[in-house]
Amino acid sequence: MDCNCFKREGKNCIEIVPIFSNLTYEEMMEVARITKEKTFEKGEMIYMAGDKGDKLYVIHSGKVKITRFTDSGKEQVIRVLGPGDFMGELSIFSPLPLTDNGEALSQTVTCMIDGKKLKELMKKYPTIAFKVMEELSQRLEKAEHLIENISLHGVERRLALTLINMANEKGEVSLKMSKRDFASHLGMSQETLSRKLTVFQDMGIIKLIGHRRIILLDIEALEKIE
């Protein structure tokens, strides 16, 4: 199906993606012409490790979980993406197969952009390439930070630092993923995560509200956890 994102109410699929933010409407239309829309249901795989990647996937609505599996078969959640985010970008620049998996966490509408034609547009509009590089640099920094956390810190310190980094200006954390996926992202079991969150709450430094909301009551105490 051709992309009809420009026909939707509100901002379209191309407009909400930062890498295209500097383009004019006419230039965005050029991107739209090499784009197809596809809807994935909750739990459906958008792509899998080993697939030949030749598309950039832009999320128009919904949420997608990006994961990898260890040699032992354990799932590691890399990130959770939402509207305006993109994935599959590395395959555009490399002939190697995809190395991660993209799974829809809810009904998700994506705009799939042809990789070869997108590279041609990058030559025409270098700002697209620079924006992609900027986003990849930010993701690399986050990945290195996650690796450092898992390698150097115990589970309590790892959880405390992550909560601080995820909190908004009001000191609230709203999880975009299930606790199972959050635990996987932190490199711990769901049982360990639940136990440590309960300990933090009993200490009076956080407050758990429902399954996905966490209020940080004492950030200074969290910073001191080793």
Automatic annotation (TrEMBL):
The keyword Transcription regulation applies. Residues 19-139 form the Cyclic nucleotide-binding domain. Transmembrane segments: none annotated. The keyword Disulfide bond does not apply. Keywords: DNA-binding, Transcription, Transcription regulation. Residues 153-220 form the HTH crp-type domain. This is Crp/Fnr family transcriptional regulator.
